[in-house]
Write a structure and sequence with these properties.
heterodimer, A: mainly alpha, MetI-like fold, 8 helices, flat, B: alpha/beta, Rossmann fold, six-stranded mixed β-sheet, four-stranded antiparallel β-sheet, 9 helices, 39% helix
């Protein structure tokens, strides 16, 4: 046994990089899919709407933890090959981001009045241009506070990756705690780090909400 | 050949039939005013002309070209047929200039470089050049509606549709919008408008169409229709508008 020292603090901050990496990967792969989900969910054609509603219900009804375990422990049984932890957790968080962020953005798109689509359509621009230049900027403004709120959820959610042995901040905390036998101190530090990242984002989200509500 | 040819058009919303066998022909340069009570199908007919609503039967031809919701050149048709809405429907996140130039730039009608000049010349026609850098919310209702008209004009339409464009305005702001429309009429723009402004219908229109229960009930030159309404429904309608 040893004391909690600078080395442990460095270990935690190094692990924090992996938390950040996970968030970045989830956003990098998840946001384009989220946009696709939002577009399909608001599509005029019935089949894409139903298909995406099904995916949404499926993922919404499964705990994120179960999703992680499915990709890390479950899927290899089907495939017959071991999936590296980083790949498994990235896939799980990408799906999580695509579905939940997609749903937030769908709400934003639907909050823009139908007459805006009509006005844009009547000027003879394409459906994509109507979305890109008229609907999306207004929807983004509406959905921005909730999007930042989701980011906070995602950052905290990455702690679940610890269960599949992926060494991010929480898993590093477990390891340091086991080495030092000072769980109270170690987990307090871990919690403080999450808080230090999430709290400013929460404030920003609130601030955005207050600001954007006033003018539209 | 008529600019707009409407033949036996049928339209229902669910089980509610809103247009029964409507036929109408509009020549270039005509100012056609559609009048009638709420729910008589006026606005629906107007919206069918640029395929904002799909028709269930009959046909609509614009410059000889059949109009329907999934036509391959729908975009190109809508560039020729402008519509101004009751609730203006300006794009709130864009300045007046961009509201006007968005579609012309995206469709390649004007280069980005010349866009501002286009916006200025269109705004000049509605007397609002000084508002080019404003956002819609900074304008009065009448000004917003004039910008909406300028936005249409920027596409150089062959035909303009006006859907109760003064109905959402405060009474003192109606005049400025009607004046812009009169100017356009004088310059030979073909216009179809749905309106409750009987004075405008009487003085500016070349043809009045009275709609009742989803049908064209009576049509003709304003003097004839207003002085000698043939049907009791039109007589009653004119009577009710005089009282107001």
């Amino acid at each position: 046994m040893r004391q909690f020292s600078m080395i442990d603090f460095v270990a935690l901050t190094t692990a924090l990089q992996y938390t950040v990496l996970l968030v970045i990967l989830a956003l990098a792969f998840g946001t384009p899919l989220a946009l696709l989900m939002a577009l399909l969910r608001t599509s005029r054609a019935a089949i894409p709407r139903w298909a995406t509603a099904f995916v949404l219900q499926l993922v919404q009804g499964i705990p994120l933890l179960a999703l992680l375990m499915f990709f890390y422990f479950g899927l290899p049984v089907f495939l017959g090959v071991q999936i590296p932890p980083l790949v498994a957790v990235t896939v799980a968080f990408t799906i999580y981001t695509a579905v939940f962020l997609g749903e937030i953005w769908r709400g934003g798109i639907e909050a823009v009045k139908q007459t805006q689509w009509e006005a844009a359509a009547s000027l003879g621009i394409s459906r994509w241009q109507q979305f890109r230049y008229v609907i999306a900027p207004q929807a983004m403004k509406i959905a921005l506070p909730a999007t930042v709120g989701f980011l906070v959820q995602l950052i905290k959610g990455t702690s679940l990756a610890a269960v599949v042995g992926f060494v991010e901040l929480t898993r590093a905390g477990q390891l340091v705690s086991a080495a030092t036998f000072q769980p109270l101190l170690v987990y307090s530090v871990v919690a403080a780090v999450y808080f230090a990242i999430c709290f400013p984002l929460t404030l920003w989200s609130r601030n955005l909400e207050a600001r954007l509500n006033g003018s539209r | 050949m008529a600019l707009v040819e409407i033949r036996n058009v049928q339209k229902s919303f669910g089980s509610l039939k809103v247009l029964h066998d409507v036929s109408l022909s509009i020549e270039e340069g005509e100012i056609v005013t559609i009048i009638g009570r709420s729910g008589s199908g006026k606005s629906t007919l107007l919206r069918c002309i640029n395929a904002l609503e799909e028709i269930d039967g009959g046909e609509i031809l614009i410059e000889g070209q059949k109009v329907y919701g999934k036509m391959p050149n729908l975009k190109e048709l809508r560039q020729r047929v402008g519509i101004v809405f009751q609730s203006f429907n300006l794009f709130p996140h864009l300045k007046v200039e961009r509201n006007i130039t968005l579609a012309p730039v995206l469709t390649g009608r004007v280069s980005k470089k010349d866009a501002r000049d286009l916006a200025l010349s269109c705004l000049a026609k509605v007397g609002l050049q000084e508002k080019i850098d404003s956002y819609p919310e900074q304008l009065s209702g009448g000004q917003q509606q004039r910008v909406a008209i300028a936005r249409c004009l920027a596409m150089s339409p062959h035909l303009m549709l006006f859907d109760e464009v003064t109905s959402a305005l405060d009474p003192e702001l109606v005049g400025e919008v009607l004046k812009v429309m009169e100017d356009m009429a004088r310059q030979g723009m073909t216009m179809i408008l749905v309106t409750h402004e009987m004075g405008f219908a009487r003085n500016v229109a070349t043809k009045i169409v009275f709609m009742h229960q989803g049908r064209v009930w009576e049509e003709g030159p304003p003097a004839e229709l207003f002085e000698n309404p043939k049907t009791p429904e039109l007589q009653a309608f004119i009577g009710s508008t005089r009282q107001v």
